[in-house]
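Reviewer comment 2.1 asked that we show a complete input and output for one of the modelled complexes. We chose the iron/sulfur cluster case, as it is the one discussed in the main text.
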Amino acid sequence: METRLIKKDLLAGLIKGLAQDTLVYAPVQDEDNVLFKVLEKGMEPLTEYDNTKNAPKNFFFPQQETLMRYLKKERGSELLGVPGVTAEAVLFGVRPCDARSFVLLDNIFDDPQYRDPYYVDRREKTTIISIACTRPPYTACFCTSVGGHPLSSEGVDVSLIDLGDNWLAEFVTEKGEKLMKKLGDLPKGDEQWASKKEALAEKAAGAITTKIPGKDIKPWLDENFDHPFWDTIHASCLACGTCTYLCPTCHCFDITDEIKKSDGRRVRSWDSCMYWLFTHETSGHNPRTSQKQRWRQRFMHKFKYFVDNFDAIACVGCGRCVMYCPVNIDIRKIAQDISKL
Amino acid sequence: MERNPYVPIPVDVAKITTEVTTKDIKTFRFAFVNKEDEEAFAYLPGQFAELSIFGKGESPIGIASSPTDRGYVEFTVMKAGTVTSELHNMEEGTRMGIRGPLGNTWPLEYLAGKNVVLVGGGFAFTTIRSLINYMLYEENRSRFGKITVVYGAREPGLLLYKDELALWEKRDDIEMNVTVDKGDADWKGKEGFVPAICKEVAPSSENAVALICGPPIMIRFTLPEFFNLGFSKENIFTSLEMRMKCGIGKCGRCNVGSKYVCKDGPVFSLAELDALTPEY
Ligand SMILES: Cc1cc2nc3c(=O)[nH]c(=O)nc-3n(C[C@H](O)[C@H](O)[C@H](O)COP(=O)(O)OP(=O)(O)OC[C@H]3O[C@@H](n4cnc5c(N)ncnc54)[C@H](O)[C@@H]3O)c2cc1C
Ligand code: SF4
Ligand code: FES
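Response of the prediction step:
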């Protein structure tokens, strides 16, 4: 694997340089928040930050997108077209947990039976640069409990690791190596890097103090769909959906039609299993009428159903739902409580 | 190029048949606008499609025709909400779209060489009709054993496919038991609820498979009759409904436990359902 050193004060400039002729998404300061945004002229990409409030999934799976346009006629209608292919892009500054979410989402959207052309197109054209967590940013972080690691380069094309004065850049994939050429001449990384990395990785993982039982609770979940424990978690839930919207792995969506005069479009928008309407059928029947059932669904989907289907937990341990739930429902605590039953 | 699974295939409404006296169930026959689409739309009984009307939306509907019917595809639709009401207002010749075929099929391979018992209640008879026409097709008939049908509706005016029912009654390679909860002056067939008729007909479970479709209450009372007759959970199949959007296992809406009804179903054996969470 090729490695290069990038002086600390040069990185932001390099990213801005890329943005001159390439679409770049990067973390930027937005009032009190750090958010992923399209990097435009005059914007400063952050290189030192905790994590973004929004997960980067929206660059591949936007909160709202047009699937197709059509023309309504007097009788019937005519398809006008499907949005064209997207441009090459660089997604800069992703944390390893969020990068891993793409690997999980690929199971859904890049399924060989039905490939989702919108997602797959953007995913293929985007090069991902991560910033490893040599100092895990939050006490809510728990990536190591759900199959991730603060220094992991899973799902990443270029991994940046903080060495103090320099960033060490690992060019992990072919896409990453292609990008390396665009960055210009950079000094090669240290030959002994591998052994140093091990020490850094161990230190970073050690700094993550929250441990939750990940796959260990799967056997309990397999057997206990009707356990009274499920009555104890949802009482304060407002069904606001914040947890699902901020979640890097939640992928539920709705498809709706919008029409103005004769111009119409079919749109997909994020949806949430926390909503009553999500499963409501026209007949009035609804398999999930209570917030208890919906919370159980959310938890089961992440810790059982996804594991059944793809042998991975659909949670990357980023901590967003823990930090931003307005009533402090904590998915880590639910997992821990289950392991004590 | 790979087909975009969200883009509907253009079809024209070729024929509309009002099935019932209440006029809220109609069968729509669609003709493909492009010949190659017809070939690409290769389906088997039990599958469904999203009927797609630009400006209104989409609805998942079981395919009511059989792949042995060439040149068209049919769906029987009850008027319910936005999309289905728009359909009911349509005239022959209107252009719209369908997306599919979607989902799995009735277990055709498993049915081969076995006696097949088909039970339908209300208007959930549509994909069973597809299967009957498929099995009765000349080149297919010898692949299946005895075919027994129990089909019930509330009253005679609510029975679907009346012309076909009459044709099947005349054949000797299918045993028809059509029943209504309450007959009228002209009704000469059976009277009684589906579970009771199943008990009376008492199909043997020997080398037999039962496919049961209908309202939940009918299914609840019919199943014990089949267990009494010795049918195992592996040999009873049904077709599930859940609210759907994408139809291709992505939007996360239609799961029952770890299965998506749109992609892994809609057809499941009772044994398979037992292994899933009871939330549908
Ligand atoms: C596999 C399958 C096969 C079906 N086969 C038939 C059939 O052969 N004939 C028939 O009349 N009906 C069938 N249904 C039910 C039919 O899909 C709903 O009645 C229909 O979607 C209502 O849509 P609407 O736009 O008229 O109602 P609205 O309430 O205006 O629409 C709401 C939207 O919610 C979804 N939705 C609502 N209820 C259901 C439901 N029960 N199942 C799935 N999605 C739903 C659809 O996306 C629909 O467009 C089937 C459902 C499934 C899942
Ligand atoms: S963020 Fe909290 S209150 Fe809102 S839906 Fe999720 S669990 Fe419920
Ligand atoms: S309808 Fe979208 S997952 Fe089944």
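DSSP finds ten helices and eleven strands in chain A. We note this here for comparison with the apo prediction described in Section 3.2.
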